[in-house]
Design brief:
The structure is a homodimer.
Chain A lengths: L6 H15 L8 E2 L1 H8 L3 H13 L3 E4 L3 E4 L10 H9 L3 H26 L2 H16 L6 H18 L3 H4 L2 H14 L8 H15 L3 H22 L4
Antiparallel strand pairs in A: 1-3, 2-3
Helix pairs in contact in A: 1-3, 1-4, 2-3, 4-5, 4-9, 5-7, 5-9, 5-10, 5-11, 6-7, 6-10, 7-9, 10-11
The structure holds a DNA duplex (30 and 30 nucleotides).
Chain lengths: ~240, ~240
DNA sequence: GTGACGTATAAGTCTGACTTTTTGTTCCCG
DNA sequence: CGGGAACAAAAAGTCAGACTTATACGTCAC
């Protein structure tokens, strides 16, 4: 699924990144490269490369004579897939899951509408195939199989929209759906209504009915948001 | 506006990054760290740090015995502000501008709706102030002054939505608006209708009218999209 | 043709010395 | 006693060179 710490600097990142996003080092905290290098038992070169990556994610800022300072959370590149993964693995997963789902509410309906206009015949076929796969796995606690088709479904819609910004949210949606399945209380079978909606969305896109695809997708994703609110109470 | 190549590795990035996003090195191209270090007249350590950053943006992939290979564009982290800036500076600015504006069409109306519910009194005040600033600069070729208030307006709405994913798109919107003002043919004064809409959106948010704020914002951003289509013909 | 083996290659890692920038202190003068 | 200039220390930044490791590719035997 993800990239397991490639190279030494990758392993350092896999440890330091989640620590920062988890708020283990409050904003303004100062880290020194040499100290970190010692702590992780790597050379300074490796540590510097790791810091550079964190810097490119706007998680930290490196300044001479002062050190590596942790930036406030509102400056982080929260669209970076790695940052998203780190945050979803952390303590405030619920909040993270919610803000991502709200993003889905905004994006996916529009993407579905565009998909209805731009989807190729092949994409339509894959879409209905995924929908059928969801139906097939909707009963009998086959959550993993359901998840696979669900992820594929939304990924295809986002790709079929023809907009690269939408397409690149496929990974985000995948993370959200996986997080919901694995870390929420989801022992039951998925909501039958949601399954039906997916089938209908596939039909609408196939039929080129943009407004219907948009509206049905909105139902799906708003439903997901409500489901989230039920499980973790939050204003 | 942005961060001008801080440190040697930053200057290398400022040169290599745009070259890659511009498609100067087609996907699959192989670069060697040593050669790059020579070309840019920096040490390997510096070059390696630069490559690490490019790697974290998914622009390239570094593999042993192979070299640094350029990844296909559909794998790039296109939400990275730096990548966005590089691409907007490149040749396919029109396409980039369009896909970003489509993203705005999806996000900003929803954000405005949420802002109507969550905006603080102070944010409402700032919002109307910005709207007035736009009105004041809407005539007499005061495009720069208009731009400043326009950017501030949309940034406040996104922040006031209370969703961090929306809030972080403030920079993207700023880049889009700046790009439109500076690099499109925009010698005329801004569309009066758009100005009016901004004022009305500020009113709606102040009044807590979510659906109205959403709908008016949709008019603004769809208008921006149409304006884009007129200037650069594209299917 | 297929498999195992060896080799060349380019990234990866480490070390140590040196440079540069910047902060904070000290000290002198007004 | 206050302010500014000179100074010193600290941390990142840069560089060069040696060494290690993984791996693609060619070779050779079967």
């Amino acid at each position: 699924m993800s990239t397991p710490g490639r190279g030494l600097h990758g392993r350092v990142l896999e440890s330091l990144g989640p620590a920062i996003t988890a708020g283990e080092y409050p904003p303004g905290s100062v880290l020194r490269t040499d100290e970190l290098a010692q702590r992780f038992e790597v050379s300074r070169s490796v540590m510097r490369e790791a810091v550079r990556v964190l810097e490119s994610m706007h998680l930290v800022e490196s300044r001479r004579r002062v050190g590596v300072t942790v930036r406030p959370a509102n400056e982080w590149n929260v669209y970076d897939p790695q940052v998203i993964r780190w945050r979803l693995a952390g303590a405030d997963r619920p909040r993270q899951l919610r803000s991502l789902t709200v993003l889905r509410c905004a994006v996916e309906p529009v993407a579905a509408g565009l998909a209805a206009k731009h989807a190729t015949a092949e994409q339509c076929a894959e879409l209905t195939e995924c929908a059928l796969g969801m139906v097939a796995n909707s009963r009998g606690h086959k959550l993993e199989g359901y998840l696979v088709h669900d992820v594929a479904f939304h990924r295809i819609v986002l790709n079929a929209s023809g907009n690269e910004m939408f397409a690149r949210l496929g990974d985000v949606v995948a993370e959200v759906l996986a997080g919901r399945t694995h870390h929420q209380v989801m022992f039951e079978d998925p909501d039958p209504a949601a399954v039906t909606l997916h089938v209908q969305v596939a039909e609408a896109i196939r039929g080129g009915d943009a407004v219907r695809a948009e509206e049905l997708t909105r139902e799906i994703v708003v439903g997901a948001l409500q489901e989230l609110d039920v499980l973790s109470p939050e204003a």
